[in-house]
Amino acid sequence: MNSKNGAPNRLINEKSPYLLQHAYNPVDWYPWGQEAFAKAKTQNRPIFLSIGYSTCHWCHVMERESFEDHEVADLLNRYFIAIKVDREERPDVDHIYMEFCQALIGSGGWPLTILMTPDQKPFYAGTYFPKESRYGRPGIIDVLHQLGELWRVDEKKVLSSAESIYTAVTTHKELPNASVVSSQEDDFRPWAKVILEAAFQTFQESFDSQYGGFRQAPKFPTPHNLTFLLRYAYDHGQAPKAQQATHMVRTTLDAMGQGGIYDHIGFGFARYSTDQHWLVPHFEKMLYDNALLAIAYLESYQVQHLPRDEQKVREIFAYVLRDMVSPEGGFYSAEDADSEGVEGKFYVWTPQEIHELLGSEAGQLYCRAYDITRDGNFEGKNIPNLLHTEWTALAEEFNLSREELSLQLEEARKVLFQAREKRIHPHKDDKILTSWNGLMIAALAKGAQILDDTTYTDAAEKAVSFIINYLYPKQRLLARYRDRDSAHLGYLDDYAFLIWGLIELYSATGKKDHLGLALSLQKAQDELFLDTEQLGYFLTGHDAEELLIRPKEIYDGATPSGNSVSACNLIRLARLTGDIHWEKRANEQLMAFKSSLSTHSAGYTMFLQALQYALAQSREIVLAGPIQHAELSKMKELIFTEYRPYTTLLYQEGTLSELIPWLKDYPEDSKQSTAYICQNYSCLRPVHTAAELPSLLL
């Protein structure tokens, strides 16, 4: 069933854009499933597992070099059962085999390549392979031929190797669920501060003081590192360490915002920078990066009130709401780095193009501002950036005020954007993932809180409605929607990220249905994913496909882990509801991963934010009265104006006590608004006007 004659392979029946990209390969691809495993066992052939995603540049390169090549396809089809997996649809499969890859070669990435027995036990792993061996990197031709022959002539040796690898990875690696929580060690406080300090020290030592970010190249935004540092600064007041933490965040946010990693014409951030300066991105844009970066800029705006942070947030949301939202309200996943087969082609410019579109004078101004030169800064062309722009000098050079300069550059941007829209666009991965939508819902809801913009509330609520209508049948979340098809039982991240979004949306709107759904989903998450023996949450539900290992993740990589976000959610739900059950669950979640946090605390910065929240003095604010009352709106605006990362906000509008019984103690008066503030288990006097509130919030 190969496609040597142009016929599609089995992937043609899939919904995943990534799998469909490979539907006309001459490789006899199978999707992940029992058909492939049964065939491998019946024919006694090893499995070639290839995992990637639709906007992965090197996935495209490997496809063009190898999977579209008939010589490679012949070897694959002769020796192996070939399985293709979209990591974004099956993060459970991806997580398991990425762990094996990292154990075997010390690193990982995508495309992920695994050779394994018919029983799904790996015996060889790698990432990108060229067709032919070169520069010390083995070629896929050599790998397939040698290992295919080895299986044929000495199958027992391969099986023995696979069994040894499986035993080593499953028994000797340090897994979060490897240690049982002692019933006598139920307090995280004695060790939490040590771990937080260790993480801060790691960031101090790895900070790039010249260009921002951490370590050298490539550089990834990793926004939860920045939001951890903002909380660290908040916790340490005026201490020098607090100033250092704020400086690291400020320098990094400014450098990223000025660099080529940011799309200065159409807005939004690319995945990462290939260089130390944030100039040359890997051009794909991911929904999760833009959601998490919007949150980082929003929190920075609360801290320092810099207009450039607000502008960046509004531009990110403008990009998402323009290009990444479906007609029904769900958010698409990503946009590719490549167009017309060339990485970055859609985004780069020559001076001639700029001058033809803007005219001589405006073109000269734009080129000077955005580093557009004849020599170029990327393969002979130019990525617009502001890394070396001196605004005062530029305004003086062109005899403009700063305001006039900004207006002229904005008019130029609009012209260039319209021209760029006529280019061939990069591929858009239009599948809608529950987890990533949860992150964008959280970001938009925080935007609505801090910027007081109902546009963001409306978009977030529309996305929630989309998930309820299309991805929540029979009270069980599903992970992916595309082309009128909803599929895959939801993973831990789907529940945790959506709960996060709903909590933020409740904080923005005061609508109890959002909080009610968050609590309902948290209860379902505990039933489906909780490890009742060793605590923490598994990535897959107990009703999911049984795989080689039931994975449990805590590492906060490109996205935070479901366990880390759950730790934050549980603390917030405990503070919101006052329910001892959630307090107990939050404490158990914090204790479950002590050993992992102790090894490399800077790798778990979202989880560390849960520790920071748990260590902080509690502050709960109840706003009682009609939600749309003018005075209550002013109070809400005051609360969100400043950075208050550990403040819990509730709205007693007359019905929330049905959900949270203790709110009956805070009477609601339809004629006036009242703010009740409780801090560190004691309450201050209620106030009825926004003018009285600031002195109580210090």
Automatic annotation (TrEMBL):
Recorded coiled-coil stretches: 395-422
Segments forming domain Spermatogenesis-associated protein 20-like TRX: 8-168
Superkingdom: Bacteria
Keyword Coiled coil tagged: yes
BP terms from Gene Ontology: carbohydrate metabolic process
Keywords: Coiled coil
Protein name in the entry: Thioredoxin domain protein
Organism this protein belongs to: Desulfitobacterium dichloroeliminans (strain LMG P-21439 / DCA1)
